[in-house]
Amino acid sequence: MNAPRLSFSSKELQDLAVAWIALGVAFAIFFAGGGQRAVVGILRGGVVAPVLLSLLTAGIGFLLHEVAHKVVAVRFGQIAEFRADYGMLFLAVVSSLAGFIFAAPGAVYHRGRITAREHGLIALAGPATNVALAVVFLPVFAVGVLASSDFLSLVGSRGLTINLFLATFNMLPFGPLDGKTVLSWSRTVFAAFFVPALVLTIGVFLVGFGF
User: Fold this and answer.
1) What are 56-89's pLDDT values in tens digits?
2) Which of the two residues, 33 and 20, has the higher pLDDT score?
3) Dist. CA 113–CA 202, nearest whole Å
């Protein structure tokens, strides 16, 4: 039997776009300090730059994390599609106004018969993509420094920090997070990925990189 072809329905594309934009707005408010003062500050200073910054860092991190789950699931013969959680997206924006952020934009739902290894690799694909994105953002930061571009420097540093955090957080072995599925499949793979990601994430947060 032929594997399903990778394709995106109009509903799925809509959900991905809404999640991307909502997270961009939420993270822009969060990084501005949250609350009404942050919103007023963003509006007075120009809304485009802070929202664009968040779309290119947190937004891209979440978006490609979910797309990676779908791509690998389809590769293993699954029928897979992303569905946004509009209630959680609303909560992300509201929580950012309160000065913190809780973001669970939705998930890729897939069905079909797979092995434990394939299930583990589907789960690992999201965090692995975030680590790859962190590596991509590092030279962006370097170019920004060399070019004396504050915007590029911030895109690079914040993109690296956020994607390391997303990789580490999603690999926690609890509840519906990817780490629980990976750990159930292979303790070795889990430890080899999670421990370095955790150390790097703690490191960038301690030095305040990206903030």
Assistant:
1) 999 999 999 999 999 999 999 999 999 999 999 9
2) 20
3) 37
12 an active-site residue? no
Cβ neighbors of 23 (< 8 A, separation 6 or more) are: 54, 58, 59, 62, 89, 92, 103, 105
Tokens of residue 204, six digits? 């960038």
Q: Helices (H), strands (E): how many in the chain?
A: 9, 2
- Check: CB of residue 120 under 8 Å from CB of residue 189: yes
Q: Could you tell me if 177 and 194 are in contact, meaning their C-beta atoms sit under 8 angstroms apart?
A: no
The backbone region for 210, taken as left when phi is positive above 0, alpha when psi lies in -120 to 50, beta otherwise, is: left
Say how many C-beta atoms besides its own lie within 10 A of residue 191's C-beta: 12
Spatial CB neighbours of 117, under 8 Å, sequence gap ≥ 6: 185, 186
- The catalytically annotated residue of 12, 66, 81, 118 is 66
pLDDT of 54 > 60? The answer is: yes
How far is the C-alpha of 150 from the C-alpha of 134, rounded, in Å?
18
Q: How confident is the model at residue 175 (pLDDT cuts 50, 70, 90)?
A: confident
The per-residue pLDDT for 12 is 95
